[in-house]
Amino acid sequence: MRDDNHTPVLCLASASPRRQALLASIGVPVSVLPSDIDETPLEAESPTAYVERLAVAKAQAAVGKTALPVLGSDTAVVIDSTILGKPNNQQHAAEMLRMLSGRTHQVLTAVAVSGPLGILSCCVATDVTMRELTAKEIACYWLTGEPADKAGGYAIQGLAAIFIEQIQGSHSAVVGLPLFETTRLLRQQGVPVWAGRYPS
Ligand SMILES: Cc1cn([C@H]2C[C@H](O)[C@@H](COP(=O)(O)OP(=O)(O)OP(=O)(O)O)O2)c(=O)[nH]c1=O
C-alpha cells in the first residue's frame, strides 16, 4: 500500500526527473533544489572518485538552503577508462554509441546524503553489455529525443532497452539512483523510506 502523505522528507539536489520518480517509487517524497556545479573531471581523477566527488558537491551545494537532509547523485558511463557524460549534440551522441556498440561498459552512479552524520556517500558500478548497433539505429535513435540528457547517450529504461543484451549490477543505478544502497544511506541519516502504512 502506498503512503498518502506527500510532505517532503528529503531535498533532492538534482534536476533529474528519473531520480525524483525513483525516490517516489520507494515512498520518499522530496522537494527539489537542483545544484549547478562544474562537472569537469580533475586531472588524473579516477571515474569512481569523479562521480563520488560530484555527488557530494551536488549535495553540499544545497545544504544550508534547506532544513531537510539532502541527496546528491551523479551517473557516468565508463569505457576504456574514458568517462562519458551527457552528449553535447547528435554527432557526440553517435560517437558515444559507436564506442559502446558490441561491448560491455560500466555505469557508475554515486549517491551522497547529508544529515546528522554529516555527508555519507557510496558509488555503485554496473556492467552493461550492448549488442552491436547499426549506423541506421544510431542515427535514428537520436531522433527519439532520449539520448540528449543521458550519460553515455542512451536510456536503458527507454527504447535503448532493445540494445541492451545484459546487465550485471543495479538497474536503478543505471537509471540514476541505486535504490538498495540509497535506502541504506537514507535510513542511516534518519530519513524514512517506505514509512507509510503497512498492510495489516
Ligand atoms: C546510462 C543512463 C543514464 N541515465 C541518466 C541518469 C542521469 O539523470 C543522467 C546522467 O546525468 P547526471 O549528471 O548524473 O544527472 P542529471 O544531469 O540528469 O541531473 P543532476 O546533475 O541535476 O542530478 O543520465 C538514464 O536515465 N538512463 C541510462 O540508461
TrEMBL record:
Protein EC: 3.6.1.9
Pfam families, A to Z: Maf
GO molecular function, one term: nucleoside triphosphate diphosphatase activity
Top-rank taxon: Bacteria
Keywords: Cytoplasm, Hydrolase, Nucleotide metabolism
Protein name, per record: dTTP/UTP pyrophosphatase
Biological process (GO), any one: nucleotide metabolic process
GO CC term, one of those recorded: cytoplasm
Major subcellular site: cytoplasm
Database matches in SUPFAM superfamilies: ITPase-like (SSF52972)
Reactions catalysed according to its record: dTTP + H2O = dTMP + diphosphate + H(+); UTP + H2O = UMP + diphosphate + H(+)
Signal peptide residue numbers: none
InterPro entries per UniProt: ITPase-like_fam, Maf-like
Family to which this protein belongs: Belongs to the Maf family. YhdE subfamily.
Compartments, as annotated in UniProt: Cytoplasm
Native source organism of the sequence: Vreelandella aquamarina
Residues the record marks as site: Important for substrate specificity: 18, 75, 157
NCBIfam families linked to this entry: maf (TIGR00172)
Reported cofactor(s): a divalent metal cation
Function description: Nucleoside triphosphate pyrophosphatase that hydrolyzes dTTP and UTP. May have a dual role in cell division arrest and in preventing the incorporation of modified nucleotides into cellular nucleic acids.
